[in-house]
Amino acid sequence: SCTEVVALLNKHGCNDVTDSLDLSACSQHPFASGGFGDVFFGRLWDKTAVAIKTIRTYYKPGEEALVYNKQAAKEIYTWSKCKHPNVVQLTGLAVFRDCVAMVSRWEENGNLLSYLSSHPSTDRCDLSVAICDGLAYLHEINIVHGDLKGANVLIARDGTPMLADFGNATLDISNPTLGFTQNDTKPGISVRWAAPEMFDEGTSLPTMAGDIYSLGMTILETFTSEIPFPDKTDRSILVHVLLQKKIPSRPEQIIPTKSIDGNKLWAILTQCWSYDPKIRPSARAVWDE
């Protein structure tokens, strides 16, 4: 049950904040829905604004609660291990509306694209470097993000970008003490950001090399303030990327060919988008560049 999951994670060092939530100040309806759950606005009794992400059940006859609680526990445990300025900090976990929920600070600035639309003069290089740093940190502690994209980068009050939404994240080294096993539900794929190999029948789990492909798309998003392949439908992207092995076209106004820095940036992005995952750089190498 939810309470058992929360109790077990609490024993493993995750903070249980169920009793700190002021339920009367929490939103009735979710303001966003992600791959695995809904996100509600809430407040703690000390008036701190928080985001409450519940993990949605999905139906697998006879064991839906079990499957979903494992997913919830895995995501919370993964997230609780992270301590870095460019990764959203988990405040704690809670039982909220009969669901296991993850609680983190509410970020007024929202995600990357909403922030860029209201702060167009932001330094895109600084943002990109910080996003790389967050991903490099995750990889260094053996966490694969699995769904990196602008919508999963939140911007703190001071403009610092932070990687969020660990719904697809996998801890490379599974922790036997937790007693939860990896379930075999294929995570939701964000078509515009996902590496070509993620669409193979055999590849179900996200990889670090897959994160690097998505990192390239997220940096492109940071510079253009647009999602990758803005003029294409999801279906046509599949043909474009999988069959024709194409990459996004270069936004000449923003990353000009006549600029040394522009050429350097474009070279890094094209490396991130290598069709062969083995020749993509590491996140730390991208950060160093």
Automatic annotation (TrEMBL):
<protein>
    <submittedName>
        <fullName>Tyrosine kinase catalytic domain protein</fullName>
    </submittedName>
</protein>
<dbReference type="Pfam" id="PF07714">
    <property type="entry name" value="PK_Tyr_Ser-Thr"/>
</dbReference>
<dbReference type="GO" id="GO:0005524">
    <property type="term" value="F:ATP binding"/>
</dbReference>
<keyword id="KW-0418">Kinase</keyword>
<dbReference type="InterPro" id="IPR000719">
    <property type="entry name" value="Prot_kinase_dom"/>
</dbReference>
<dbReference type="InterPro" id="IPR008271">
    <property type="entry name" value="Ser/Thr_kinase_AS"/>
</dbReference>
<feature type="domain" description="Protein kinase">
    <location>
        <begin position="25"/>
        <end position="289"/>
    </location>
</feature>
<dbReference type="InterPro" id="IPR001245">
    <property type="entry name" value="Ser-Thr/Tyr_kinase_cat_dom"/>
</dbReference>
<keyword id="KW-0808">Transferase</keyword>
<dbReference type="GO" id="GO:0004674">
    <property type="term" value="F:protein serine/threonine kinase activity"/>
</dbReference>
<dbReference type="InterPro" id="IPR051681">
    <property type="entry name" value="Ser/Thr_Kinases-Pseudokinases"/>
</dbReference>
<dbReference type="InterPro" id="IPR011009">
    <property type="entry name" value="Kinase-like_dom_sf"/>
</dbReference>
